[in-house]
């Protein structure tokens, strides 16, 4: 008999819940990944992606909690912690045109619109430009103090494509606007957690369990300030669900604490 193949090694990734206050409460920026994507195609997700080897360049100016503090939060070494924070900032700019950076003396860059900024965003996407290069050219520092740890999920070993994903929360900087510019999404916009979860239950907004669960956590907060003031345990314990199926065919993701997330089959054409 052939021995079973070992589980795929999870790729390190960062995801960002980009937040703003709206008339109905906290709103989060969501994207629907294009259906042709090899991972989570057609699913609603947050901004995010895998760590780039160049994330966390040694010459990167930095304001806020350093690598050691983030390493404690995520339970990893300092080099990886630095890469994860940089990946979160880079992906937010690449996928939403929002830059969590500013002068080293303080503040956040108020406007990143215009053709020159767009050319640099495109250069990041094609890997012609590293995040450290962009910030150096602009005379800016990465603002790690604008990010807060929110959750940590690891794709189960049964999956062929796996990610070890750190979830960050960040407020939309004053003066900046999130844009629908991600080449990996065919739809993007703002929604309250409650509205997104209602669409999920109706089968019109397919989502993976980490998105469903973190939206449920987000729905408990009255405003963005409360989200960012939260103090998660250090380190954040990673969540890796298992799966089960009822006798009636309903499938569930089961979290380590026993929480069950119903897996909703999308409506035809969604």
From TrEMBL:
Residues 9-213 form the Nudix hydrolase domain. It comes from the Bacteria. GO terms for molecular function: hydrolase activity, acting on acid anhydrides, in phosphorus-containing anhydrides; metal ion binding. Its cofactor is Mg(2+); Mn(2+). The keyword Secreted does not apply. Coiled coil: none annotated. CDD domains: NUDIX_AcylCoAdiphos_Nudt19 (cd18870). Keywords: Hydrolase, Magnesium, Manganese, Metal-binding. InterPro entries: NUDIX_hydrolase-like_dom_sf, NUDIX_hydrolase_dom, NUDT19. This is Nudix hydrolase domain-containing protein.
């Amino acid at each position: 008999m052939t021995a079973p193949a070992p589980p795929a090694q999870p790729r390190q990734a960062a995801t960002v819940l980009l937040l703003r206050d709206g008339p109905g409460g906290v709103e989060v920026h969501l994207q629907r990944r294009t259906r042709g994507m090899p991972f989570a195609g057609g699913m609603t997700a947050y901004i995010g992606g895998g760590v780039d080897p160049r994330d966390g360049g040694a010459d990167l100016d930095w304001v806020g909690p350093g690598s050691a503090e983030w390493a404690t939060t995520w339970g990893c070494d300092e080099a990886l912690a630095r890469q994860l924070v940089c990946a979160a900032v880079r992906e937010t700019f690449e996928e939403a045109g929002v830059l969590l950076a500013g002068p080293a003396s303080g503040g956040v860059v108020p406007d990143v619109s215009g053709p020159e900024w767009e050319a640099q965003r495109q250069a990041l996407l094609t890997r012609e430009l590293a995040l450290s290069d962009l910030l150096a050219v602009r005379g800016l520092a990465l603002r790690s103090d604008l990010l807060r740890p929110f959750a940590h999920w690891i794709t189960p070993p049964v999956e062929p494509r796996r990610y070890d994903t750190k979830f960050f929360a960040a407020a939309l900087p004053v003066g900046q606007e999130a844009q629908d510019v991600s080449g990996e999404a065919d739809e993007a916009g703002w929604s309250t957690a409650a509205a997104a979860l209602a669409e999920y239950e109706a089968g019109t907004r397919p989502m993976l369990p980490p998105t469903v669960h973190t939206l449920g956590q987000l729905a408990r907060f009255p405003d963005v300030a409360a989200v960012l003031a939260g103090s998660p345990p250090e380190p954040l314990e990673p969540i890796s669900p298992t799966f089960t199926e009822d006798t009636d065919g309903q499938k569930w993701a089961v979290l380590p604490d026993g929480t069950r997330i119903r897996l909703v089959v999308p409506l035809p054409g969604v």
